[in-house]
Write a structure and sequence with these properties.
This protein has 2 domains: 155 residues, Sandwich (Jelly Rolls); 124 residues, Orthogonal Bundle (Arc Repressor Mutant, subunit A), CATH 1.10.10.60. The protein contains 11 helices and 11 strands. It is of the alpha+beta class.
């Protein structure tokens, strides 16, 4: 398992690793968090992918920042967050493994309707049965985090449904990497009318394609602020495809109910789950999938 990077400070040790080739189309990265004492962990904005959160001891919470509602994370869980802003925190020394799934790809790892998982914290046993409930204990028994991640990758490989069609996923990938694309053009590429495409996209992924694209654009800004804390919020928004600052402020308020200052502080002052090599690898995978087609990402 290839180690991407390690973040180490007084509050947290975070290790990111790339998945094996067998999972690279579906999994962006694996992360291991060693949390030596109580403190703040990543803020999770509305997003396009999914997270598997696997605690290995300690007490972790997810708090919806606007309502204040708290969820105790005491067993492996799946998070497909589309409309909420969630703060992850620890109230005591803890360890956590995280699997970051690429947009829409969790549906290839079980029979549960992916659209039904949106905006829920779903116990992993609902997807993978009772064997996943003890997954955290098994990972905790590994000799080191690298060995645990190898075991976690094996767990997912055994649940990957290789016969499920991935043709529609490519269109979703193009929209994720280019949220400025016209939905009508993607529908034409799929050989569908606009209404048929929107219905199929929503039924498959749980949100409408236009909303998916709006969230992808917002995530570009958040990713930039997290990976480059010195970057300008206004310039990052323009680079992400927002027309101007007022457009960005309006969309940020509608999608996350945050101000630009609140977004920036949440990304700059907390650890994060963003993979620094994600977009490059994702783009390379999609261009490979497109093959000889004359429209690279």
């Amino acid at each position: 398992m290839h180690l991407i990077d390690t973040h180490h400070d007084a509050h947290l040790v975070l290790r990111r690793s790339l998945p094996p080739a067998s999972l690279a189309t579906h999994v962006d990265n694996f992360q291991y968090l060693h949390i030596p004492h109580a403190g703040l962990l990543p803020r999770i904005l509305p997003g396009n992918g999914a997270l598997a959160l696997i605690p290995c001891g300690g007490t972790l919470q997810l708090t919806e920042i606007h309502s204040g509602q708290q969820h105790l994370l005491d067993e492996p869980a799946i998070l497909c967050n589309r409309h909420q802003v969630l703060d992850l925190s620890a109230s005591e020394p803890s360890r956590l493994f995280v699997v970051s799934f690429r947009p829409g790809r969790l549906r290839h790892f079980g029979d549960t309707c992916f659209a039904d998982l949106q905006d829920r914290i779903t116990p992993s046993r609902a997807l993978w049965g009772s064997c996943s409930a003890s997954l955290g204990e098994r990972l905790a028994e590994a000799s080191d985090p690298g060995s645990a991640i190898v075991a976690l990758a094996g767990f997912l490989e055994r649940r990957l449904q290789k016969t499920r069609s991935a043709d529609f996923d490519l269109l979703m990938d193009l929209l994720y990497l280019g949220p400025e694309r016209r939905i009508s053009d993607l529908a034409q590429d799929a050989g569908l009318s606009l209404r048929q495409f929107e219905r199929r996209f929503t039924g498959t992924y749980g949100v409408a394609p236009k909303y998916f694209a709006r969230v992808a654009r917002l995530q570009r800004v958040a990713r930039k602020l997290a990976l480059d804390p010195a970057s300008s919020t206004a310039l990052s928004a323009l680079d992400a495809g927002f027309f101007d600052h007022s457009h960005f402020v309006h969309e940020l308020r509608r999608l996350a109910d945050l101000s630009p200052t609140e977004l920036a502080s949440g990304m700059r002052e907390r650890p994060h789950f963003y993979n620094p090599v994600s977009l490059q690898r994702y783009t390379a995978l999609i261009n490979q999938a497109l093959g000889t087609q004359s429209r690279p990402v």
